[in-house]
Amino acid sequence: MMVLLGLALGAAFGAVLQLSGASSHTKIINALRLRDWTIMKLILTAIGVGLIGVHLLDAAGAAHMMVKEVYLPGVVIAGLMFGVGFAVSGYCPGTALAAAAEGKPDAWMTILGGLLGAALFAFLMPSLETLLFSLGRLGPLTFHGLLQVPGWMIALPMSVLCFWAAMRLSAREKTSA
Amino acid sequence: MKTTGVTQSMCEGTTSTAEAVKPVLAPWAGGVGIGLVLIIAVALVQPIGVSTQYVVFDGVLLHTLFPDVAERSPYLADAAEGWTLETYEFAFVVGIPLGAFLAAWATRRFSTRVVPREWSLRFGESPVRRLVWSFLGGVLLLFGARFGGGCTSGHMISGVSQLAVSSLLFSAALFASAVLTARWLYGEGRRS
């Protein structure tokens, strides 16, 4: 039952990624070169909707939250590495799967590289752990937790900000096109 | 909200070898779709995530081939709990290519091009060069994602939506380094 639910949700996610152009190397690279705002608007809208939905669920006590831990500088170094991989391949771990399903051979290579990268990490993990994870380990912090207010009080304005930014990008695209 | 699906300034290649670049869904529609998937997932199970399942797949594969090697890694044993792929999390990740396949099939948008346009403009038509670099990109992606504890799905979509501090830090670092790398690799983005 849970497996079927996973398949269905994953399929919906994969279909939307494909139909939105997120599995296109061209779309991603031009987003990162700051010359095509499609993907930015997609992500901003997704986060805007997610913020409202997740925090309304949470306020109703119906959310299954899972907040990741902060460990500095590890999480920043990791993000920098990920960003280089993202720009070189033009895919992220999820969109590579979608692009591979469309028949793109370079996405298959990104998946194979990803499996190697994940395996490398799995075997380096014990030595990296003492070096970087223990440093600056601050726990699963959230902004509303730090400010000690209910999540929706920050999520709603943040969400409006995301939608506003997405619309500004659209307006900008129209004037410069 | 203004829809922009038809006002994309990108020119589209419609020849048989070129990839259909133009998205079917407007960004706001796609964004609402992704947001809804996240909300349903958070209501029923947990936030969405992809990159852990690369480790799970590695773990189960290694455990099938060399069980004692796999069991020596506590990280693998922990991620691939019970050495099984029959989980909600793995099914979600299998669903992604399934859904993308169906979407590409329904809209006739399959593409077997090896070298994407932006890559060929900068680095030429060599398929080997593209395949090698996309492999290396993949290594960095998943090493970074596992190091940071998430990827675009887990950190940027799920994490930022939960207002997680680590996810905002990861996403900001990701975005900064991806933009700098892309502008350096593919050239700065003047509209041509």
Name the shape of chain A in a single word.
Answer: globular
Span between N and C termini of chain B? 28 Å
Largest interface: A-B, 135 and 141 residues
List the total number of helices of chain B.
9
The helix/strand series of chain B, from N terminus to C terminus, equals HHHHHHHHH
Can you describe this structure?
The complex is a heterodimer of chains A (177) and B (192). With 177 residues, chain A is mostly helical. Chain A has eight helices and two strands; from the N terminus they run αααβαααβαα. The radius of gyration of chain A is 19 Å and the shape is globular. Chain B has 192 residues and is mainly α. In chain B, helix 8 packs across helix 9 (165-186). Chain B starts with 26 loop residues before the first helix and ends in a 6-residue tail after the last helix. The relative contact order of chain B is 0.10. At the A-B interface, helix 1, helix 2, helix 3, strand 1 and helix 4 of A face helix 1, helix 2, helix 4, helix 5 and helix 6 of B.
Keywords:
heterodimer, A: 177 residues, mainly alpha, two-stranded antiparallel sheet, B: 192 residues, 0% strand
Q: How are the SSEs ordered, and which strands pair?
A:
The complex is a heterodimer of chains A (177) and B (192).
Chain A: H1 2-19, H2 25-32, H3 38-59, E1 70-71, H4 74-89, H5 93-101, H6 105-133, E2 137-139, H7 143-147, H8 151-176
Antiparallel strand pairs in A: 1-2
Chain B: H1 27-44, H2 52-65, H3 67-71, H4 74-79, H5 88-106, H6 117-123, H7 127-148, H8 152-161, H9 165-186
Helix pairs in contact in B: 8-9
Short overview:
The complex is a heterodimer of chains A (177) and B (192). Chain A has helices spanning 2-19, 25-32, 38-59, 74-89, 93-101, 105-133, 143-147, 151-176, and strands at residues 70-71, 137-139.
